[in-house]
Every structure is written in C-alpha cells, then in structure tokens.
C-alpha cells in the first residue's frame, strides 16, 4: 500500500530566507531547540548537508516504536528549493513502513512571500496493509510553522552588530 500526505504553509517570507534554513543542516540544529517535543536530538552521521548526508534523529521519550531513525538526503536542489530525505532505518520501519520519504519544497519567487510544502510519501509492508500504521503531516506542519516564526524573529533582530 502506497500513499502520500502534504501540508502547505504560507510564510510571508522570501523563499531564499526559508531555503537558507531548510536547504542545509540548520533545520536539523533548530528543531530540537524550537520543538523538543518533536525531535530531542539531530546528529550529523556523515556528509555536509548535500546529497548523501545522513542524520540520526532521536525522538522524545515515550514515542511509539524505536527511539531514533536515520535519514539520508537523496535530493538537495538549491535552484528549485527542493529537498528529499529518505528514512533508511529505525522508528518508521518498526511501525510497518517499507518506505518513508519527506520532501520539502519552498515555493515562490516573490521577495515577500513563499510557501513551505511538506510532503510525506510512504509505502506500507504487506504485513501491515490491513491495519496500516498512521502517517500524519502534523509534525511537518508544526516544524514549518516553528521555522517560519524563527526566521521572522531573526529578521526583527536585524544583523549582529560588529
């Protein structure tokens, strides 16, 4: 069984500013700080933020399944502002997923507004097809909102004084 879920958030921010956070490793550094209830820790296993980068994501205590998962960046397209992360081991597989891919697209060329489109593409193994695991875009929606709020706060602070 295959499926996909999407969420879109209008940011009111320039796409370049949003991609600056999502396009590399900064988003992984920020989420545990901004949303410890979503991810408690994100560690770089290998890579520099480009294709092939592997992260170890630790979930908060009490999360069903294993406490962590690894994800690999399989696409980082700076020109079109698209990033795809494929879960390679851990929590999602424990719950019956055979494939779990997250795609983040920052849409909009307008200097004033952009949209964060978060998509999950998943496949469930045959054993769980009759009673599939729950997939939800609510976590990605929460992350998108927190990142947009973070960028807005940073812009209000202005550049650091030298």
Instruction: Please identify, by name, the CATH architecture.
Output: 2-Layer Sandwich
Name the structural class. Answer: alpha+beta
Note the beta-strand portion: 35-45%
Reported by name, the CATH topology is Alpha-D-Glucose-1,6-Bisphosphate, Chain A, domain 4
Number of strands: 7
Topology as H/E string? EHHEEEEHEEH
The percent of residues in helical segments reads 25-40%
**Stretches with pLDDT under 50, minimum 5 residues:** none
Q: Can you list the strand order of the major beta sheet?
A: 1-7-6-5-4-3-2
Number of helices: 4
- Main sheet makeup: 7 strands, antiparallel
CATH C-level category = Alpha Beta
Radius of gyration: 16 Å
Give the number of domains. Answer: 1
State the end-to-end distance. Answer: 56 Å
Q: What's the overall average pLDDT, rounded?
A: 89
Sum up the overall morphology in one term.
Answer: globular
The CATH superfamily is known as: START domain
Overview of the structural elements:
Helices cover 25% and strands 37% of the residues. With 162 residues, the chain is an alpha+beta fold. The protein has one domain: Alpha-D-Glucose-1,6-Bisphosphate, Chain A, domain 4, CATH 3.30.530. It has a seven-stranded antiparallel sheet. A hairpin with a 7-residue loop joins strand 6 and strand 7. Helix 2 crosses helix 4. The protein is globular.
